[in-house]
Specification:
Elements lengths: L7 E5 L4 H12 L3 E6 L2 H13 L3 E6 L5 H15 L4 E4 L15 H29 L2 E6 L12 H21 L4 E8 L2 E2 L4 H6 L2 H8 L7 E2 H12 L10 E4 L7
Parallel strand pairs: 1-2, 1-4, 2-3, 4-5, 5-6, 6-9, 7-8
Helix pairs in contact: 1-2, 1-8, 3-4, 4-5
The protein binds nicotinamide-adenine-dinucleotide (NAD).
Length: 252
Amino acid sequence: MAKLHNKVAFITGAGSGMGEAQARLFAKEGAKVIAADINVEGVKKVVEQIKSAGGDALEVEIDVSNKSSVEAAVNKGLQQYGKIDILSNTAGILDGYAPTLETPEDLWDKIININLKGVYYVTNAVLPQMIEKGQGTVINIASIAAFVAGGGGAAYTAAKHGIAGYTKQLSFDYGPKGIKANAIAPGAVETGMTKQIFEEGSADVMEAVNSVPAGRYGQAEEIANVALFLASEDSSFMHGAIVPVDGGWIVK
Ligand SMILES: NC(=O)c1ccc[n+]([C@@H]2O[C@H](COP(=O)([O-])OP(=O)(O)OC[C@H]3O[C@@H](n4cnc5c(N)ncnc54)[C@H](O)[C@@H]3O)[C@@H](O)[C@H]2O)c1
């Protein structure tokens, strides 16, 4: 049987990269997918493709850094499908690898508001109906920047460390209420976020990206495969884990 039969998944950042890959895979595994993104065109395309492959999906516009936008998007999803079983907080942006002295306050606020506060907004909007059912799964997309320096700049690394802590606290507080929360810490993965960096990257950047045990950067589908594992019953005893999927980046 499909691994997510009868499940409803709400995925942020579903218009591109890892969010898109999860949307497609979860739909293939039987989930009804609420594909949420600030990029409406991107998410529409993904939903059309899911539907033409025989799946069920709904596109919703969301700005994860805006509470009323988040609540409207979650309500639209709930109106359509009546429940959300799986939440994947995937939306995020890079900070240009800026050290703190080169991080103006507006950049700091933007990164924290989208990459960290956005996770809090969306989780708080989805969680109550999960708790009511006594069942739900949350997957937060962190980064190797949740473990080590150099995967982003000051704001990005602070936000991703924040996601790791937030995920552990979610497990601690709501695991006993039937909520399974885990995070994935991807290494360098080819997506909309990194395509240009990988195409135009200096020898130094590409050396850093490729000098991992895997010897290459990853693909969005390789993150989605682990997200599926975390979304499904296969990971039934996993709570509060921050799972590196990084070609071995953090063991270098
Ligand atoms: N690509 C990598 O190498 C890498 C490595 C580690 C972690 N990550 C993390 O993976 C996640 C997914 O990124 P990706 O690599 O797939 O990049 P991506 O740019 O392909 O996708 C990110 C998506 O998030 C959406 N988004 C941005 N701001 C938003 C907002 N305010 N509200 C709603 N949606 C918004 C974008 O429109 C885009 O569709 C991010 O959290 C990123 O930090 C990426």
